[in-house]
Structures are given as C-alpha cells and as structure tokens.
Amino acid sequence: MRGKLVTGNWKMNGNLASNQALLQAMIPAISPISGAKSAVCVPFPYLAQVEQLLRGSGIAWGAQDLCQFDNGPYTGAVSATMLADFGCRYVIVGHSERRSVFGESDGVVALKFSQALRVGLIPILCVGETLDEREAGVTEAVIARQLDAVIGQSGVAALADAVIAYEPVWAIGTGKTATPGEAQAVHAFIRRRVAAGDEAIAAGLQILYGGSVRAGNAAQLFGAPDIDGGLIGGASLNADEFIAICRCAQPAA
Ligand code: PGA
What we know:
Layout: E1 4-9, H1 16-30, E2 36-41, H2 47-54, E3 60-63, H3 80-85, E4 90-93, H4 96-101, H5 106-118, E5 122-127, H6 131-135, H7 139-154, E6 163-166, H8 180-195, H9 199-204, E7 206-210, H10 215-222, E8 229-232, H11 239-248
Parallel strand pairs: 1-2, 1-8, 2-3, 3-4, 4-5, 5-6, 6-7, 7-8
Helix pairs in contact: 1-2, 1-11, 5-7, 7-8, 10-11
Bound molecules: 2-phosphoglycolic acid.
C-alpha cells in the first residue's frame, strides 16, 4: 500500500559545480527506477538550480527547514510559500541538528510542520533519541513526546500528508547504524502510536530510517516491515552510493 521513499539530505554541503555534477550523475540512473520514489533536500540558495536540473526527471526536491511563520518581518527566514514557489515537494522538519544546534523546541517544530501542510508541501518530520536517552530507557517516551507535539497542533489526520523519519541521534553521521531490529522496533512503536489515533493513516504512513545508511546496509534496513525507505545524509553526496541506496528501495521483482 505504501511505497518506499529515499530522500537525500545534503545538509550544508555543495556548490553550483558539485551540485550539477552530482545530479547529472544521478538522473540517468535513478529516473528509470520504478516502484520507489526519490528526492533530494538541498540548501535554500540552490533550490532554483536543483529545480531547473530535476524538473521532469522523476526525482523530487525539497528543503531542509522552513520558518514557522508565513511571509513577513522575519529577517533571515524562509517561508513555506517561498519553498512552494521553487517546486519543492518535501521539506525536512525538526531534524535533530535543528533541534540541538539551533534550539528548536517541539512547539516550534509543530508550527513548522503545519506551515508546510498549509501550502501543500510534504513535511518529513524527524524524531529520534540521543544516546543518553536510549541508555536511560526513554527512547519511546522521547519519540512519543516529539510525535504528540505535532499531532496536538495539526491533528492525527494531518499525518496522511506527511512522512516521518526515525533518526536516532547517535547514528547520525557517526557510522553507527541502528540494526534493522532496533530500527524496526521503533518504527513499529511510531506506527502503533499513530494507529491509536487513526488506524488507516498509520497503515499508509511512510516511516523512513535515517542514520548512517549506506549502500552496504540499506537493503537489510529497508527489508524490515515498518521501514519504508531512508533519509540519507553523508551517502547522498556520493552519486554511486545514493543510486545504490535507491535501488535497494525497489520492490523485489
Ligand atoms: P547520515 O545523516 O546519513 O550522514 O548519518 C542522516 C541525517 O542526518 O539525515
């Protein structure tokens, strides 16, 4: 019922020349992949370039953040309306780097999520626990709190138009991946939590895994029943790796 999705998160990387080379290598290999979707979430200044290169390619694009308010006196911020102007399909919301480095609270993340939906963007809501939280046995409580903030603001029905990414903070950029079993357990918890509000929405919800996904571990992770693809940081900057990961998301023939 729900297909797989592989989304690159370039973070604060790239330049005009390297973006062009990366996308030109990806397009001919990823465009023909059927049965799985792919996208790249890029820094704001490159949205116009990426829109121009990816339009009609079958690879979608999006941003990595947005403002919790619409257009107005918010110096330095970028609104959902502006992202829609550049053909974005997705926007990452509440990435752990935004939460920890830029101090975004659950409440701000919930407002950003609702702004994305207001203009028809698909928010990719990131949730995940730190190593301390995992070791303290509060993983589920942390994820429930992060999810409930968004559901409280927008209602469970809003998740029909959203994607969730489970990204254990200890696995991001560290080379330490959650095992398929560890990830599956949290994905199943997220789906159960959403199902408590609406079973049909939970059944259709794409839940991506993120945190040191590579070509070498993607197939195993994507094989777990509640893992519907990946949010890929470091490996999305390498065309061969990203293409291989997208192939792992294809349904078995
Ligand atoms: P990583 O990042 O793949 O480099 O671990 C994932 C993310 O932060 O989205």
